Each structure stands twice: as structure tokens, then as C-alpha cells.
């Protein structure tokens, strides 16, 4: 009997929770020009370029309140561990010269390179290594903590660079990661 009355007894409580919901007014709205293909969340997806200038995969970035989540999938990367860093310029056009146009690492913290470096690391630009397999290629998700999309995506954009070797997370300036194998330009 008590179980049957319990839902009925809750009716006054549920009714008390009701009320008017505020309605947003458009009187103070400001028009904003947004490109037709713009993602309202700020997410971006770009191709990953290999050293021969062809597309070898895709990378995406999703902004958040404390940094950015970057997902990538690429083929043609040799099996093994590879360093990955965010670079200052979103330019991968000089693939035949090793993606040097992407500049050096983003370094908003003004510190030395390396996640294990006692003198700090490049906030939002130094990542753990990624592993590539022959079957699946290079697949990963990275978090650029402390680096907001607005900071990275300035007038000349930014790039995700994949290196030929793993990053030892201490050696200056790039952790011994070697040549740049792949580049994803975000603008």
C-alpha cells in the first residue's frame, strides 16, 4: 500500500518545482559573421601531409576551457615511437624541405622543452610519444593542457608535427626526436 501511494505523495513536490523558465531576449543580440562551413564549437579538421606532399591522414582539434584535444590518424609512418609537438606556424607547404616553415615549438610558458625536464616543459606543445604500427598506422589522442585554441591559432595558425624518432623529454631543443615526418597545419 505504501509503495502505491509513494508516487502520489510526490506530486505536490514535483508541482512545487515548476515555474517560469527565463526566455532569452534578442534585443541585445549582436550579429556575428560566421562562415557557412564554420563549426560552432571551434573544432577543426585538417589533412596530415607527408614528406612527399601527399595527404597521409587527418588531424582534428576540439577546443575546451583548459586546452585542446587533438586526434590524429596517419598512414605511412614507420613502425615505432614518434615525438609530436605543436609548432608556431600553420604551414606545411615546404614538405620537400622538412616542414621548417612551421617554425619552432609553441612556448607560451617560456620554459625549456621536455615533459621530464626539471626546468619545465612547453605548456600545451610537448606531448607523450605516439606509437605507429604497420597495420593501423599512427593513431592517437593528445591533450594540449593550458594552451587554448585562441592562443595557438593566431594570425599564422599552428601546426602539429610528427617526428621520425621518439622524444626523450629532456634533450634540447626537441628531445632528440629527429626529422619532421608529417605536418598538420591548423589555420
Estimate the mean pLDDT confidence.
83
In what order do the strands lie side by side in the largest sheet? 4-6-7-3-2-1-9-8-5
CATH architecture of the domain at 45-138 and 148-180: Sandwich
| Tally of helical segments | 2
Helix share of residues?
10-25%
Terminal CA distance reads 66 Å
The count of β-strands is: 9
Protein name: Superoxide dismutase family protein
Pfam family, one: Sod_Cu
Family: Belongs to the Cu-Zn superoxide dismutase family.
Keywords: Signal
What distinguishing features does this structure have?
187 residues, mainly beta, Immunoglobulin-like, 9-stranded antiparallel β-sheet, 9 strands, globular, disordered N terminus, SOD-like_Cu/Zn_dom_sf, Superoxide dismutase family protein, metal ion binding, SOD_Cu/Zn_BS, SOD_Cu_Zn_dom
